[in-house]
Amino acid sequence: LTTVFFLDESQRLMLADFCYVILVNLGVSLLVSLLLIPAMLDRLPLPRPSQRRSVRGQRRLVRGYERYKGFLYWMRLRRKWIIVLLVLAFGLPVFEMPKHWEAREGWSTKTYWYHEAYNAVFGSDLYSETLRPYVDKALGGALRLFLKETKHKNLSSARKRTELSVTGDMYEGVTLEKTNEIFRRIERFLAAFPEIEQFETSIPSASEANVTVLFKPEYELGSFPHTLKAKVQSLAVDMGVGDWKISGVGRGFDNSLYEGKVNSRVTFYSYNWEQTREYAKEFIERIKKVQRVDQKTIHLDGMANRSNKIQREYVLRLNRERMKQSDVGTGRLLSELRKLSENKAQVMSLQNGEYTEEVNLRRVNRKIPDQWELQQGALSMGDMRMARLEGMGRMTRNRVSRQINKENMEYTMVVEFDFIGSDGQRHVLMEPIIKKMANELPIGYRLEQESFQWGSWQKDGKKDNRLYILLLILAIIYGICAIVFESLRQPLWVLAMIPISFIGVFLVFYGLSVPFSPGGYASLLLLSGLAVNASLYIINDLNG
Q1: Strand ranges (DSSP E) for 353-478?
Q2: CA 242 to CA 235: how far, in whole Å?
Q3: Half-sphere exposure of 121 (CA within 13 A, CB side)
Q4: Cα–Cα distance measured from residue 95 to residue 279, given in angstroms and rounded to the nearest whole number
Q5: Each residue of 212-223: b (16+ CB within 10 Å) or e?
Q6: Which of 138, 216, 444, 499 makes a 20 to 30 Å CA pair with 109?
C-alpha cells in the first residue's frame, strides 16, 4: 500500500477508500488470529483427522507423489530453459531504449566513446528500421503489450452521461448584455426539443459563455444527439459574433483562428516579483538565439493565456510637454474621458435583507464614441476652453497584460512561445537551455516547463509511472523479506514470483482491451501480496 503515496493526487484520492478497506482488513485479521482463534481452539478443540486410509487410496496418493516428483525432476533438468522462457514471457524493457544516446551538458553536447558505440549499434538504420520492430516484440513479452498496447486511463475519470457542450468565445467589444442575448437565443432554440432533459448556461464574462445539454436516457445512445449537434452548429455559424466550439457528440466543431496558440510554456515561481521578471527576460534572450523559436510569438506575462485568442486593449500615452504648453491638467483630461466611457452612475444603495443592492442610473440609446470621435472630439478644459485628445497623447493597441499574479503565495512569470519542429527537436534544442536556467536560479526560485500535446497542456518530464511503481513494489518487498529472513539472497526468490504472477494481469489488460484504471492498481497490489505470501510459507518451512 505504500506505493499509493507515490501516485498523483487525483490517483491517491481514487485509491484512498481501497487503502482504508485493506488496512481495516489487516487490522481485524491480526486481532482475530492473535485473540479469537487461539481462544476458540482452546474451548472447541478440533478432532484429529483419521490416519486410516484404504489400500487403493494409499496407492493413488503414492502415484500422485511419484508423478509430481517426476515433474519436478524434469523441470530441474531444464531449469535454465524454463527461467529463460519465464523471463521472455514477462519481457525485457528493450522497447524503452532510446534511438540515440547523447550527453547534454549546458549549451554544448559532449559525446563519449560509449555514446558512439551505442549509437553505432542501436542507432543505426539497420537496427532501427529493420531489426528493432522484431527485437521489441521478441524480447518485450507481456510487459511491452501492457505498457505500449494498453491505454492508461485517467484514474479521476468516471463514466459520464452523453452531453453536448457549446462554448462561445466572443469577439472584442461584445458587451455582457449582448452575450446574454445570444445565449438566450440558443436556449429558446434548445427548449423546442422534448428529447432534451435539461440544459445549463454559464456566462462568467462578456467574452466567454457556455451551455451544456443533457439528453433523456432513452435518447442518449440514439441519433438525436448528433442531429442536434448539426443544428446547433448551423445556428452558431449563422450568428457569428465569436468563435464557437461544440463537443461531446461525434466529431468536435471549432472555427477558432487560434491566433494566440503556442506549444511551449515556461513558468517561473518565486517570492520576489521584480527578480522573477528579470530572470524571465534573461530566459527570453536565450531562447531568441534558437532559430526554431518563432520570435513573434514570444510573450511575457504574469499568468498563462488559457484562451486561443489574443486579447488587446487601447493604451493612451500622454504627451506631458504638449499638455503643459496647452495648460491642460491630467486630472481634468481624465475626468472628461471618463464621462465619455461611463454608461451608468450609482445614485443610491438599498438594503435587501442581508444584502446591499446598488441602484444605477443608465442612459438609454447612448452612443459610445469610436476611436476617431474620441481623438477629434472637443473636450471641455474649463474657463470656456476646449481641447482635442489627438494633440495631447498617442493611442496604441496593445496586448492585454496581467503582470502581477500569485499562485500558492508565489509570484509567477510565464514565458510563452511557439517552437517550430517535432517534439524530439524541441527536446534536443530547448532542454539544455531550460536545464541550465534552472540550475542557475538561486534558492527559492524555480521553473516548470509545459508543452501542448494531445489537446491539453502537459508538464514536461511527466512520464508513465506504471513501470516505476512495479519497481517500487519489488524494492519494498525485498527490504521487508531481507529483514525477516536475515538474508540478502532468499528475498530474491520471493521477488521472482511477482513478475511471473503479473504476466496474467498484463495479458488480460491487453487481450480484453481494458484501460488501466484503479482496478488495475488494486489487482497488482493484491496479486503481489498473494504471491509473496505463498512464497513466505515455503521459504519459512525450508528454513525451519
Answers
A1: 355-362, 378-382, 385-388, 393-399, 406-407, 410-419, 446-453, 456-459
A2: 12
A3: 6
A4: 39
A5: ebebeeebbeee
A6: 444
User: pLDDT at position 502, please?
Assistant: 84
Q: How many residues are listed for the chain in this entry?
A: 544
Q: Cα–Cα distances in Å, from 315 out to 106, 331, 393, 395?
A: 41, 17, 10, 6
Number of H helices and number of E strands within the chain?
A: 17, 19
Residue range 443-466, pLDDT digits in tens:
889 998 887 765 566 665 555 565
What is the distance between the alpha carbons of residues 168 and 163, in angstroms, rounded to a whole number?
Answer: 16
In angstroms, the CA 90 to CA 528 distance is 15
Give the 3-state secondary structure of residue 144: helix
DSSP label of 391:
G
The one-letter code for the residue type at 41 is: L
Measure the CA dihedral 181/187/190/194, to 10°: -150
Other Cβ atoms less than 10 A from the Cβ of 244: the count is 20
CA distance readout (Å), 506 to 135, 145, 515, 529: 19, 7, 11, 17
Q: pLDDT at residue 198 above 80?
A: yes
Nearest alpha-carbon partner for 196 in 169, 161, 167, 168: 161
9-41: pLDDT as tens digits: 666 777 777 778 888 888 898 899 888 888 888
Backbone torsions φ then ψ of 288, nearest 5 degrees: -65, -20
125 conformational bin, left if phi > 0, alpha if psi -120 to 50, beta if neither: alpha
CA atoms of 361 and 391, how far apart (whole Å): 33
Helix (H, G, I), strand (E, B) or coil at 6: helix
CA 105 to CA 96: how far, in whole Å?
23
Do residues 414 and 267 touch, judged by C-beta distance below 8 A? yes
SS3 250: coil
Three-class secondary structure assignment of 184-237: HHHHHHHCCCCCEEEEEEEEEECCEEEEEEEECHHHCCCCHHHHHHHHHHHHHH
Could you give the CA distance from residue 391 to residue 333 in angstroms, rounded to a whole number? 12
> Contacts by 125-130 with C-beta closer than 8 Å and gap 24+?
128/99
Beta strands in 33-111 (DSSP E): 103-105, 108-110
Give the Cα separation of 385 and 332 in Å (integer): 12
In this structure, what DSSP letter does residue 408 have? Answer: T
What is residue 8's predicted lDDT score, i.e. its pLDDT? 66
- Residue in 316, 281, 251, 264 with CA at minimum distance from that of residue 429: 264
CB 138 within 8 A of CB 145: no
Fill in the amino acid letter for 533. Answer: N
